[in-house]
Amino acid sequence: MSDLQDYIDNNGGLHSPDDSVIPIIELLKRSVASRVAQGQRNGGPMKLTVLVVNSMTANAAAGSDEESDYIFLSNGVLTLLPNLFRALLSHPDILPHIGDPTRCTPFVSSRSASDLGDDATGWTVPFPEDPPRQRLHAKLSFLALQYVFLHEFAHIYNGHTDWLRDHGKLSLISEVAVPSIEKFSGIDRQTIEWDADSSAIQMLLEHVLQPKVDHVDGISRWDIPDGNGFGTMREGIYACILACQVIHMLYETFEAIPLDDITDAEHPHPAARQHEVFATIANVLSYRTGWDFEEVADLSGDAITGLYGAWTKVFNDDFAWPRMLADPDVIDLNVTLIERYTEQWALIRDELDKLKRGGQLAPAYPKPNPAFPDNSPYLYSKRQKPDEAE
Q1: Residue 71, exposed/middle/buried by CB under 10 A (0-12, 13-18, 19+)?
Q2: Which residues pair with 69 in a beta bridge?
Q3: Rg of the chain on CA atoms, in Å
Q4: Are 74 and 64 within 8 A, CB to CB?
């Protein structure tokens, strides 16, 4: 039995989405339609199939066989995210200037986040009573789901699924471990997860901010309009930070990895992934638009403060990770991991480049964007400036 069929069978079989979910699936597919149309696989056109499985665990997966590439979304993740954002937005901590949070009845969950991530069955949250916050919940919950979807898409588009299969490891990448499928962990696996996170964040920013793209010496430069579906440019960036961090907070409940045991995991340490949301957004905006890092840092701080405040009220839990992010040991861990992933990326990039469906993979040794040579990131191997890379 293939890993793909094994995954379907162990997640309750395929689920037929109802009329409320089908348009959401179509929007997700539309968000990558141009890339799929340009994508190539084995000399022929790329084919992407999106399927829903019955499992109520908040999971997603990507895989490939001879006929198609596949993204699997669980019924759990499709059900949980809208309810989660209804709960969070019933509190005034997140974007309090949108609508009137005082009209909303604050929601407190009787179930923990870890319990819900494992099985979201039966957890329903009323819509916020304030209409603008109802609309905001719909936008944010879709954005978080889109981040999950784009992460899985990056596994396929960047050649990860083929690379793993060619190396005899896996033919499917699951965000939550499936007991019947062999585990593949270590720096190789964490590196491709890091690449999928980074790629998904950039695609999400591009989707929300809708930049006008031109090129300087072959490298894209973004001109971002001030208006988008969330309001101003800053509000759009805030929404991206919020959506990505909610997903990492949710998935942290699945794997509490000790700081001294990082190499035997399938994913980067949760604290490192949360740091990398900020770092990747700062990198993309600095590299593509010339934005200053400090502006992104301030915005990230506001988003995290709001999210942490709402999360702890919903789950009545003193969630530890905001303190972890400021822990010097965690910061050192993040630096060490990024250096290791960057070094590993340089080793496997050429192989992935032959297997990717399209687009440009991140270079092994990034160079400055000629449009903004003084704003190039400093977050690469050995903390070197990009223009000092070989």
Answers
A1: buried
A2: 48, 64
A3: 20
A4: no
**Residue range 297-326, pLDDT digits in tens:** 788 888 988 998 999 999 986 555 555 666
pTM of the full structure: 0.92
Angle in degrees, 0-180, between the axes of helices 187-209 and 233-252, rounded to the nearest 10: 150
Compare 264 and 127 and report the one with higher pLDDT.
127
Closest CA to 160 of 374, 321, 378, 362: 362
Sheet of strand 172-174: strand arrangement? 48-53, 69-74, 60-64, 172-174
b/e burial code for range 222-237 (CB count within 10 A of at least 16 → b): bebeeebebbebebbb
For position 383, what pLDDT does the model report?
36
CA-wise closest residue to 144 among 105, 88, 227? 88
Separation CA 162–CA 155 (nearest Å): 9
Strands 48-53 and 44-45: unpaired
How far apart are the C-alpha atoms of 232 and 238, rounded to whole Å?
Answer: 10
Q: Which amino acid, one-letter code, is at 151?
A: H
Length of the chain: 390
Query: What are the beta bridge partners of residue 228?
Result: 231
Per-residue pLDDT at 46? 97
Instruction: Compute the mean pLDDT over every residue in the chain, rounded to the nearest whole number.
Output: 87
The residues near 326 (Cβ < 8 Å, ≥ 6 apart) are: none
Helix locations, 316-387, DSSP H? 321-325, 328-355
Rounded to the nearest 10°, the torsion over CA 315, 264, 352, 357 is: -30
Tokens of 359: 């687009």
| pLDDT > 70? residue 269 | yes
Axis crossing angle, helix 293-315 with helix 270-289, rounded to the nearest 10:
140
Burial label for 215, CB within 10 Å (0-12, 13-18, 19+), is exposed
- pLDDT at position 321, please? 55
